[in-house]
Amino acid sequence: MKKLLALILLFSSLVSLQAQDRGEDDLGAWAMIFTNNRISEKLSIHAEAQYRTYEFGSNFNQLLLRTALNYHISDKAMASFGYGNITTDTNFLEFAGEENVNENRLYEQFVLKNSLGKFNFSHRYRLEQRFINRPSGENTTEHRARYFLRVTYPLNDKWFLTAYDEIFINLQNDFFGQNRLYGALGYNFSENLSAQMGYLKNDFAVDTYDRFQLAVFIKTDWRKK
After folding, report:
1. Which residues belong to the signal peptide in this entry (predicted)?
2. What average pLDDT score do residues 204-215 get?
3. Would residue 208 count as lying in a domain?
4. For 138-172, how does the pLDDT look when each residue is reduced to its tens digit (9 = 90+)?
């Protein structure tokens, strides 16, 4: 009887340890594509897709699809209103029949740009309204603010370095949401096509995740010549 009880306790502890494994020690990956499509002197359409994994190239974590209408106030200022659909697997452990969290998101943002010598800065202020549907049937609405600061330094006409920090602030309980610190090497294939390869450290209140990132940026111009 004692041996059986010991086996039960051992099995329970192993299950508990597995349940607490959120993949913090694994290098995940984000593959991303961003497009900006100019439709008039003042307006453009933003569209992006991001595929995120808990492990490098495997173990699905999140699919993010986002679009926005941008109003270009000047070359240095832009306002946007956008929508995103986000599908998230919140469980690092994969198992058959699992259901994902689905989120519909509205957001408003304001972007300012400035430069200091060869350094180029971008400041993004964003508000989000998040409509979250969980597999349990619980639906919630959450609000969040984000501040993003990017700095870019050109090495030559083609290569550049870039880094950013972004903080997420919840506008309800648990004030701190997360912080993202990123650094990358970028390459300009042309004026309208570039790519970046970098590393992201994503800090939450209780977890920290390391992510490899590969991003492609495309610009198009739909204005009549």
Report:
1. 1-19
2. 95
3. yes
4. 899 999 999 999 999 999 999 999 999 999 999 98
Structural domains in the chain (count): 1
Residue 165 lies in a domain: yes
According to DSSP, the residues that pair with 163 across neighbouring strands are: 151, 183
Whether 3 shows a pLDDT value over 60: the answer reads: no
Residues 6+ apart with CB under 8 A from 181: 163, 164, 165, 200, 201, 203
**Domain containing residue 193: CATH number:** 2.40.128.130
- Full-model pTM: 0.88
Q: What one-character-per-residue DSSP string does 188-222 give?
A: EEETTEEEEEEEEEEEESS-EEEEEEEEEEEEEE-
Rounded CA-CA distance 150/178 in Å is 17
Closest CA to 107 of 48, 149, 158: 48
Please name the residue that has the structure tokens 């003042």. 42
Q: Is residue 213 part of a domain?
A: yes
Note whether residue 3 is domain-resident: no
Pairwise CA distance, residues 110 & 187, whole Å: 26
